[in-house]
Amino acid sequence: RTSRTKRHRVLSNDATYHQVVRDGLKLGPVLVCVAAKDYARSLACSKCGSAPRCECGGKLHLKSAKKLSCSLCGASPNWRCPDCSNLKYILLSKGAARIGEEFRKSFPNIRISVSTSEKPIDQIEGKAIVIATAGMEPDGEFGSVVFFDAQYLQNLPELRSEERLRRFVFSLLSKLKESGSIYLDLSPMNRLSRAVNTGNSILGLNDELEERKGAKLPPFWRIFRIEADSISRILNNLSKENEEIEIFYENDRTALLRVAVDKGAKLAESLYLLQKYRSISRKPLMAIEVDPYEL
Q: Tens digits of per-residue pLDDT, 79-92?
């Protein structure tokens, strides 16, 4: 069985998204999807390329056109590059506020709105462009959909980044008018691009499953995240009963346990009995996650 949606015209060349927007405006409002709400989430020194950082060590980003902000402490420092003393930086990625500025210049006579968690837009109609962060897309049908930052979202260092992006993209395609077009900033050969182009949402899933199998990840392997005091002593005793488990320590309180899926039930039973013993002994209980959503 395959899961199919209507086929739409898909473009993925940097020079084409303006045309996708123009074509979409003839049919109705246009949706532009971005990853970040601020002006720019990633910067670099214009001279040496170093990443601007706050005194606390946090990464600096632009909240607005000229306001630097620390991602950790929230300070707005007067930045100077510690490596080359340069005062100028360049934008490596753009947020909704910056993209809104660019669209206002490119489409001066079109109503342009920005929908974020701080200022959501529920509904949009007529000849308009709405720039939205994930989950903040207004209701209604769109003449075209432009996906920026798809490559960034697909390559996040998370187990389910590609899975989440696939679900996100196909959920928004249901809001696209039948003759509408799509811009996706991925290579045409990318498996998600091919899935969107053919209207087949499961195209490429077998390849993704094979990758997970080779990397010993769910659904072919079970992974348990355990958090507790004296975690190494607990797991040393546990591994004597379950010699097939692989153990990886995240820190001095947290560890990941990995075991083949056919051995998962045995390990789960061992953890259940250990948790029960700790409860009876009035020891602090372990925090246990099975196949954690994020690794």
A: 999 999 999 999 88
CB atoms within 10 A of CB 188: 12
- Distance between CA atoms of 254 and 229, rounded to whole angstroms? 9
Torsion angles phi and psi, residue 263, rounded to 5: -105, 0
pTM here? 0.78
- Give a three-class secondary structure readout of the chain: CCCECCCCEEECCCCCHHHHHHHHHCCCCEEEEECCCCCECEEEECCCCCCCECCCCCEEEEEECCEEEECCCCCCCCCCCCCCCCCCEEEEECCHHHHHHHHHHHCCCCEEEEECCCCCCCECCCCEEEEEECCCCCECCEEEEEECCHHHHHCCCCCCHHHHHHHHHHHHHCCEEEEEEEEECCCCCCHHHHHHHHCECCCCHHHHHHHHHHCCCCCCEEEEEEECCCHHHHHHHHHHHCCCCEEEECCCCEEEEEEEHHHHHHHHHHHHHHHHHHHHCCCCCCEEEECCCCC
- Angle of CA points 243, 289, 213, to nearest 5°: 60
Tell me: the pLDDT tens digits for 126-142? Answer: 899 999 998 999 998 99
